[in-house]
Specification:
By secondary structure, this protein is of the alpha/beta class. The chain has a domain of about 190 residues: Dihydrodipicolinate Reductase, domain 2 (2-Layer Sandwich), CATH 3.30.360. About 35% of the residues lie in helices and about 30% in strands. The protein is built from 14 helices and 18 strands. Strands 7, 8, 9, 10, 11, 12, 15, 16 and 18 form a nine-stranded mixed β-sheet that branches. Strands 3-2-1-4-5-6-17 form a seven-stranded parallel β-sheet, with helices on both faces. A two-stranded antiparallel ribbon has the order 13-14. Helix 1 crosses helix 13. Bound molecules: NADPH dihydro-nicotinamide-adenine-dinucleotide phosphate.
Length: about 400
């Protein structure tokens, strides 16, 4: 039973807010605060009368610590759920420290001017959060998020030692556009146009963007090409899973997406270097974001399924063992339930669950933690209850 301040009101926040309202026993009262207040008001209007959760809205610039502190002091939430963009992580963490409030997010900090995301900036807050007696839960989406919970669960229940993890993120959805991104285009394109990398024997092995390609037959989706990407949970899992020798992350992309992205890259549209245009400085990638379809608008048009999970290889009772934990989610089912496609859904549900477990003190230790550092069992139970049931395969096809 508690109060949550939710910052941001985009695709992921929309789902998390629907889910908080379904779970009004835990979320008695929420305050939705974002840059554009009209979006918060629209959602409030849509949900009020259908939920027992009391909903408030506010305008906030989450880049401004003072504004955030005033907002938090006025509402006194038990937890702040950051569903704005990775650029706002540190200002929101500063405001949480100043007000001694718990913090949850779904993506690690990334400076606006360098396309490089790393945990180091947020891990630097560890001592200060511990001294303040508050918890920061980092990466409570699907990947990162559920992938870390799956890893902790596999280690707790299925293995004595995990040596290899392959995270496979498959989106078999079709939105009918030649090119669109399923979540914030700027964040998405920065991620996929960066060099790939994986963690092996205690160090990073770097690849060119999209250099490593594999085909995999996904249950519920079928055969898809997938590409090795750098992904943020590799960094924390490499440290938090003892005995790990290699972790890789693969994401599926269709040929049309790759061809368009290559072309946009070749003409300079994915650059984050500001350029002069009609007497004004603009960032090409931000301009591109403005002309692409809003991910929130893809919901009604997207059909098909996602299949995201982790294949583990390791040892149990002295014997080799493989184990695959995954979730299949249907775009249209998500749309029917909360008016959004599966990418936002698979992120918004774990965001709600993470906030709930911090709020009700099921997960209660002061400091800054990645999700795999907590007991996975209550989270796994909640995934089944709140719309992301997981499946197991004890004899999966491995990725070479
Ligand atoms: P959207 O762009 O749809 O939403 C972002 C929201 O944040 C918008 O409402 C935006 O306001 C608001 N916002 C941006 N800047 C500020 C600011 N300075 N002050 C206040 N509000 C601000 O993004 P998504 O919902 O797709 O993504 C949200 C987060 O989830 C991102 O960090 C993304 O990286 C992460 N994510 C994580 C995944 C995972 O599995 N872990 C998967 C997908 C996403 P406005 O409406 O005015 O633009």
């Amino acid at each position: 039973m508690g109060k949550a301040l939710i910052i941001g009101c985009g695709g992921v926040a929309g789902v998390a807010i629907h889910k908080c309202c379904q779970n009004s026993e835990a979320f008695e009262e929420i305050l939705i605060a974002s840059r554009t207040k009209s979006k918060c008001d629209k959602l409030k209007e849509e949900l009020e009368g259908k939920t027992k959760t009391i909903i408030h809205t506010a305008q906030v610039d989450a880049d401004n610590v003072d504004e955030l502190v005033t907002l938090i002091n006025g509402f006194k939430p038990d937890v702040v759920l950051n569903l704005a963009l990775p650029y706002q992580d540190l200002t929101i963490m500063d405001a949480c420290l100043a007000t001694k409030t718990n913090y949850v997010d779904t993506a690690n900090y990334e400076p606006l001017d360098t396309a490089k995301f790393e945990y180091k900036w947020q891990w630097e807050y560890r001592e200060r959060f511990e001294e303040a007696g508050i918890t920061a839960l980092l990466g409570s989406g699907f990947d990162p998020g559920v992938t870390g919970v799956f890893s902790a669960y596999a280690l707790k229940h299925e293995f004595d030692e995990i040596n290899y993890i392959d995270i496979l993120d498959c989106n078999g959805g079709d939105h009918g556009y030649p090119f669109a991104t399923n979540f914030n285009p700027e964040i998405n394109i920065r991620e996929v146009s960066a060099n790939g990398s994986y963690w092996e024997n205690g160090q990073w092995v770097e690849t060119k963007p999209m250099e490593i390609k594999r085909e995999y037959d996904f249950e519920g989706v079928g055969k898809k090409d997938m590409y090795l990407l750098h992904h943020e949970e590799l960094e924390s899992l490499g440290i938090n899973i003892p005995g790990i020798k290699r972790i890789r992350f693969f994401m599926t992309f269709g040929q049309s997406y790759i061809t368009h992205l290559k072309c946009l890259e070749n003409v300079g549209m994915t650059s984050i270097e500001p350029i002069e245009f009609e007497g004004k400085q603009i960032v090409p990638l931000q301009f591109l974001k403005a002309v692409l379809p809003d991910p929130a608008s893809l919901g009604p048009r997207t059909v098909g399924k996602t299949n995201i999970g982790c294949i583990f290889q390791g040892k149990k009772d002295g014997k080799d063992k493989t184990y695959y934990l995954y979730n299949i989610c249907d775009h249209q089912e998500c749309y029917k339930e909360v008016g959004s496609q599966a990418i936002s859904y698979t992120t918004g549900v774990p965001a709600m669950i993470g906030a709930m477990l911090i709020m009700d003190k099921t997960w209660n230790k002061p400091g800054v933690f990645n999700i795999e550092e907590f007991d996975p069992d209550p989270f796994m139970e909640a995934l089944n209850k709140w719309g992301l049931p997981w499946q197991e395969d004890f004899n999966p096809t491995l990725v070479d």
